[in-house]
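STRUCTURE:
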């Protein structure tokens, strides 16, 4: 690598320091994994003209364009300007000097499943939500991962994120339409938690067992079940992969509406800033909370937030994970 390359500036500009000498890799943000098809031509052109002719689709639903020489970075950034202004500006983010490329890369691309614009199982519009989250969290240099998934099937792997958002619903039964066919109860018992059982030839839903998946709505042949029009979310937190104690995210707030959810996410910076280990190049949110404590985190992110009446906040956190152990031949 050339000695005059400032690797920290390269990384903050959304470029990678790669294993190939004098070659970098451009990271392209695609909030929610949703992109106008016209932008694919620019990505193809950059890859073929400046890179090695390939594009990597990342696990976080962005693009990486490898094989670009460091001395071509300013030129590629200028070409990327209309893309940044259209994609980020289209959701309300003003990027000044977009000709210099992305101003930050700490906040990872907000990922999402395809949501209820397409998927019948999804309870929420994940694309819209992901773009709203992008608008309040980007740009910044903190290493935070967020994913939104439309239902408890969790196609977006929300359980592996710092903040995982799961779309849930409150099923509504129009009893006069019900024909007592038991389709909802059988579906819930076989596929979900058994929250619905038949009593006197009518389905009864146990709200303590119901996880808000909406399977009963899909199973009903006469549309007696419907999703409540007010979208709700289950916010799970502090999941992670990596070398140290991988674990699944755990529930933090259940049945939270969109407005307070977005405020909670916005407040995360007021917790990170005074508690992050600044001696490290980056630190995952989970490790910061592990060190500072859940009560401090909860107080910071809920400050000034008015929760809707249905919302329930966890008193404590319980994680499911494992600690990697050395393996032996047997």
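SEQUENCE:
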């Amino acid at each position: 690598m050339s000695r005059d390359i400032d690797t920290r500036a390269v990384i903050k500009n959304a470029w990678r320091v790669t294993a190939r000498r004098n070659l970098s890799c451009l990271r392209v943000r695609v909030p929610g994994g949703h992109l106008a098809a016209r932008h694919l031509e620019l990505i193809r052109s950059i890859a073929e003209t400046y890179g090695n002719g390939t594009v990597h689709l990342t696990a976080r639903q962005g693009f990486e364009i490898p094989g670009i020489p460091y001395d071509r970075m300013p030129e590629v950034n200028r070409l990327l300007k209309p893309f940044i202004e259209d994609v980020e500006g289209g959701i309300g983010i003003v990027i000044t000097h977009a000709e210099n490329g992305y101003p930050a890369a700490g906040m990872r691309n907000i990922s999402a499943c395809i949501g209820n614009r397409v998927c019948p199982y999804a309870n929420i519009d994940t694309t819209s939500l992901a773009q709203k989250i992008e608008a309040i969290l980007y740009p910044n240099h903190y290493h935070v991962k967020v994913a939104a998934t439309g239902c408890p099937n969790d196609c977006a792997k929300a359980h592996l994120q710092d903040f995982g958002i799961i779309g849930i619903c409150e099923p509504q039964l129009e009893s006069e339409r019900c024909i007592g066919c038991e389709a909802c109860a059988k579906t819930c018992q076989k596929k979900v938690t058994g929250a619905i059982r038949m009593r006197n030839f009518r389905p009864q839903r146990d709200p303590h067992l119901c996880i808000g998946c909406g399977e009963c709505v899909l199973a009903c042949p006469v549309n007696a079940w419907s999703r409540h029009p007010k979208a709700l979310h289950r916010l799970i937190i502090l999941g992670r992969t990596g070398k140290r104690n991988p674990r699944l995210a755990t529930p933090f707030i259940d049945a939270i509406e969109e407005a307070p959810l977005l405020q909670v996410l916005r407040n995360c910076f007021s917790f990170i800033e005074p508690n992050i280990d600044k001696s490290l190049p980056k630190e995952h949110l989970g490790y910061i909370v592990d060190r500072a404590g859940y009560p401090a985190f909860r107080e910071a992110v809920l400050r000034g937030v008015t929760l809707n009446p249905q919302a329930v906040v966890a008193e404590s956190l319980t994680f499911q994970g494992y600690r990697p152990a050395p393996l032996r031949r047997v």
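REMARK: The mean pLDDT is 94.
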